């Protein structure tokens, strides 16, 4: 754990009993990874940067010892100061909310962040910082991670940033100010990555399209209960239309990097949506395949993605007695997950770049040959139960009217999907890198389709 916040909880977990607990936590693959299996050079370098951060570059949360959260205006000022103090940081606006607040994108690189086009052709790690406005720990973790990357003098960090651009986006400032899950219109933005009805959803998908990230970690919080009491819950894309290699790499990042990093710091880690008793999962209550959720959307556009969730309420007596202990654990857990994702990139940069590009080619080829299977339901550990939920003989594309095209053309553009004109309107072919999105947008068999389209046997 970073020594800037060595809480009493940290001291408890340093005991033999705490270490034994951390080492025995069940993860999805049934395996565990400890600190002895990880290269901790990046972790140590960022911890040193946090220790040495000048007062002007400490977040309001840090200055309060974890007693109060950083406000949105304070975060804008913090990133402005970070931009002015470090050549490694650039802050830009990628949209505005319905209440006019900027949707800020922070990019970090060494000796300076690469321009978007150059970065997109290389290695990019993306973090979405608390799309739900009442889940503050991800925002705090992003601010501290940005600061630590920007100010570290360690060669491990500068080498990492020379080869990988890190981008972070605060995805719901209106909800942040109102302390609400949804945006100013009451919409859960994490259910809007297909329709793109919100400016926040449009901004995030535009960043994904334009920056072409290799990995994405979506930082959240959850409400614990009797059998759902883990420091970090994590999950990868579960939609069955995700490319197999992208799915496998996403699960690896989620289990073997993000969760492993949290465990190495003494935290517990488990799979999101699994109720656990005596160390064994006994009920799966969440973790579905919805394309509208960012981790699934990421996989369908060939990004290695995951979800991180940390518990909002106390998990032990110390956290119940001192809100600072509780809040610091929340932030440190999301920071650990983010750090694990950066380590995934550091160790697998070439593999990630190769496989994300290859996945786009595979999806295009599958669409052109009408191969594979199209799923409208089910998830990676659950086959569809009805023939209406799966198409074993995929269509080549969807016919839509010109009027329908005009309604969805902005969404198609943001999803990086093309439509070609014909006598009946437009055809949206499956022979595209983001093939998996097309049936989910237009087919009547998909619960969350956004427009009416007719499947075509031949194009």
Automatic annotation (TrEMBL):
<keyword id="KW-0645">Protease</keyword>
<comment type="similarity">
    <text>Belongs to the peptidase M14 family.</text>
</comment>
<dbReference type="InterPro" id="IPR000834">
    <property type="entry name" value="Peptidase_M14"/>
</dbReference>
<keyword id="KW-0482">Metalloprotease</keyword>
<feature type="domain" description="Peptidase M14">
    <location>
        <begin position="68"/>
        <end position="307"/>
    </location>
</feature>
<keyword id="KW-0732">Signal</keyword>
<protein>
    <submittedName>
        <fullName>M14 family zinc carboxypeptidase</fullName>
    </submittedName>
</protein>
<dbReference type="Pfam" id="PF00246">
    <property type="entry name" value="Peptidase_M14"/>
</dbReference>
<keyword id="KW-0121">Carboxypeptidase</keyword>
<feature type="signal peptide">
    <location>
        <begin position="1"/>
        <end position="22"/>
    </location>
</feature>
<dbReference type="GO" id="GO:0004180">
    <property type="term" value="F:carboxypeptidase activity"/>
</dbReference>
<keyword id="KW-0862">Zinc</keyword>
<keyword id="KW-0378">Hydrolase</keyword>
